[in-house]
Amino acid sequence: MSLREHSIYDCIINNAHNFPEEIALVSGDFCLTYKELLLHVNSLSRGLLNKGFEKGDRIGVLLNNCSEYALLMAACSRLGIIAVCLNTRTSADEMCKILQQAKPKALIFQKSYQQQAEKLRELNIHQQLYSIDEASILSSAFDELLDKDQSPLFESQPTVDDGWLIIPTAAVDGIPKGALLSQSNVIAAVDVHLHHFGREAIKGHLVALPIFHVMGLTSVWATFISGGKNVLLKQFDEKLAVNLIDTENLTYFGSFPPVLERVLDYAMENDSVLESLKLVYGLEGTGNINRLHKETGAVFWTGFGQAETTAFVTVSPASECPGASGRPTLINSVYIVNEAEEKLSVGEEGEIVVRGENIFLEYWKMDEATKYVHRNGWHHTGDIGKFDEEGYLWYVKRKAEKELIKSGGENIYPGEVEKVMMKHPQIKECCVIGIPDKTWGEAVKAVCVLKTGSKLSEESVRVYIGEKIASYKKPQKVVFVKELPYENNQIDREQVKVKWGE
Fold it and tell me: Which of 183, 368, 390, 484 is the most buried (most CB within 10 A)?
């Protein structure tokens, strides 16, 4: 490492010295202090080395939130191993596409995902399977990766600009891209948390979002690095969330629909005012934001970001400018440009482009896609927005080439769903759009033209799609029409939205 570098592992060492008896991690009945966290990371790092893992190797991770996930990520940062963070909500076929690109040396999974793990094993691209629950005929126990020696390693650390994590992004063209993040990307995201939210506000983190999601990921490390306490929810449960906030004195969590609404509903039903809560951040509707401010002492922060930016690149309290997406963070330059890459003036709509230490390294093994999105020295988000005179960013829509539906915090690309639908032998044409949904923010709707003489039910189409891609991507509504509107020999998506976007 360079003498100017300070790594994730260095932060863990510092906290073990500065806050040895402070609680770092709680997962069910399992609890680690910062001193114990360092020892566990050392043990796992040594174990991975003993099993033949080397810098640059990849490990697939198919886990819900758990202590093993956090420890593995820390050990990977120490050794220069890259963790491939699989979205547990996607189908085995979609996971296969990611793993075929990343070619991991091992897959670590939990028993509830054993069926997917066994299917992934058939790819013959990972040599080792480890289960965090119990060993089986096909897998070894995760505990076999733990060495009895908990002393620090003598081997040199990787640089903070080496790849550390691969976060799969939505498949615009049917092929998911793996955004490669470095330690420096995540440390920059931690800076955003500390500068804008403040250390006191993030000292007790309810890990309500999955760690494989970039919002959950960066908040976990912001709390670890600042010496706070991470309390993991294996899967979101509003009853447990409220109880943990109150009993563990937690101060913040990240949210996308319907997390906040369900927390507030349960708290109200059980006479909790969430007294310790100082902050909630993420993407939410005005109604739930107003409820948070009225029913608790917490502040809701909103912003704009994506997996490729590791954290929000614009952020502010939602009440400062309701409906806007915040102002640029201290580490980001954010501009609006036209198709000629010229910077636009206040009020003019164009593509949102970004620079900063939190911008991802590359799409794994996709050089052309990386060059395109990073052209002219800026990260091109594919989103259309504008700035007002006060410097607040206003999100407008996705560019046509990256049409996006945002449902419950997950990105769904209509083109991916449409490709699957067009394989149905009775569907002639289709257009997939997002429609407003009270619970999830947006829901998927498919507008279809059937082949002559064909008859299909809405449910049969939904079942067909749900068997081939993640269940959250299947249409909640399907309508059949005689014809779709066209412009320039292409289906006019905007007109489809106008006619059937209710």
Answer: 183
Alpha-carbon distances of 351 from 64, 146, 334, 355, 464, rounded to whole Å: 35, 47, 10, 13, 36
pLDDT digits (tens, 9 = 90+) for 305-334: 999 999 999 999 999 999 999 999 999 999
Domain ranges of the chain: 8-252, 404-500
**Closest C-alpha among 98, 284, 313 to residue 189:** 313
Question: Of 71, 76, 57, nearest to 157 (Cα)?
Answer: 76
Query: Which residue spans within 40-184 are E strands per DSSP?
Result: 58-62, 82-85, 106-109, 128-131, 140-141, 163-169, 177-182
Distance, CA of 95 to CA of 88 (rounded, Å): 9
For residues 95 and 133, give the distance between their C-alpha atoms in angstroms, rounded to a whole number: 21
Tokens 């505990």 appear where?
Answer: 143
CB atoms near residue 375 (< 10 Å): 12
Q: Tokens representing 502?
A: 């209710």
pLDDT single digits (tens) 215-261: 999 999 999 999 999 999 999 999 999 999 999 999 999 999 899 99
Instruction: Specify the DSSP class assigned to residue 194.
Output: I
The CATH number given to 404-500 is 3.30.300.30
107-137 b/e with 16+ CB inside 10 Å = b? bbbbeebbebbbebbeeebbebbbbbeeeee
277 strand-pairing partners: none
- All residues at 6 or more sequence positions from 194 whose CB lies less than 8 Å from its CB, including other chains: 202, 222, 226
Residue type, 46: R
**Are 274 and 262 spatial neighbours (Cβ–Cβ below 8 Å)?**
no
pLDDT tens digit string along 139-197?
789 999 999 999 999 889 999 999 999 999 866 666 778 999 999 999 999 999 999 99
Instruction: Give the class (CATH, top level) of 8-252.
Output: alpha beta
Residue 480 pLDDT: 93
Which pLDDT tens digit goes with each residue over 440-449?
A: 888 899 999 9
Q: Cα–Cα distance between 57 and 371 in angstroms, integer?
A: 24
Find residue 430's DSSP bridge partners: 448
Phi, psi of 200 (to 5 degrees): -65, -35
**What span, in angstroms and rounded, lies between the C-alpha atoms of 267 and 289?**
15
Measured CA to CA, the distance from residue 357 to residue 277 in angstroms comes to 30
